[in-house]
Amino acid sequence: REHSSLEMHLPAHSVDEAFSVLRVRGLAPGFRRVFWSRLLAMTAMGSVTMVAYFFVKFRVVGAGLGVDGSVSDATVPERAALLVAWMGLVMLVMSLLAARVSGPIVERIGAWWASLASAALIAVGALMPVAMPNQIGMLLFAALAGFGFDLFNAVGQELATSVLADPRTAGRALGVLNLAPVLGAVAAAVMVAALFAATGGFTAIFGVATVCALASAVFVVSVRGAISE
């Protein structure tokens, strides 16, 4: 028969201790660069998708309309929603394709090259709506950035574990890595709000998203020498 645990001494815990396992500091430098590359990729992708409907409504379908919500053509919101729905369908198909081919791609060219190509696809995709502010440009964004981002996520764990000096830290490291998409989404929301408030337009948002994707690619390039064979 066990004794009561009421008299047992329980060590005190603090909030700082609870979140200490989620700190990037203390992990391998190469892993920290992988973390930042994933956060920046999510920031790029999240910022564009957040304004996709409004960009389609005011710059693609309702070109020439203001951004004050006044729409003279009653069909504009419906056509904008339809195009965004098609973009979502394209992203879904490309996501499934990325999941299907990620394994063979990594086996053939490795996680590093796959991550670098993915970041490049996100950057090119983020430029499409500005370079081609029409339906084709939006669908190209959905296809390129959608495939690139899902491939980036699919190979991210392998790239992250390949730069860890001590494989015993892999569990904690992957837990930290999963914070990157969440923090990237928060950063994207703040960035979009700040840029739209400052400029009142969409061009700066797509430009900064492209820069974030390119910075993600730079971080991927920087871990080449840290990958353990």
Note down, in words, how this protein is organized.
With 229 residues, the chain is an all-alpha fold. It contains 8 helices and no strands. It has helices spanning 15-20, 29-50, 52-61, 76-131, 135-162, 170-177, 179-199, 203-222. Helix 4 crosses helix 5 (135-162). It starts with 14 loop residues before the first helix and ends in a 7-residue tail after the last helix.
Order of helices and strands: HHHHHHHH
Bin the helical content. over 70%
Number of strands: 0
Number of helices: 8
User: What is the terminal separation in angstroms?
Assistant: 53 Å
What fraction strand?
under 5%
Spatial extent as radius of gyration: 21 Å
Q: What structural class results from the helix and strand content?
A: mainly alpha
Keywords:
single chain; 229 residues; mainly alpha; 0% strand
Annotate the secondary structure layout.
Elements: H1 15-20, H2 29-50, H3 52-61, H4 76-131, H5 135-162, H6 170-177, H7 179-199, H8 203-222
Helix pairs in contact: 2-4, 2-5, 2-7, 2-8, 3-4, 4-5, 4-8
Quickly describe the structure:
With 229 residues, the protein is mostly helical.
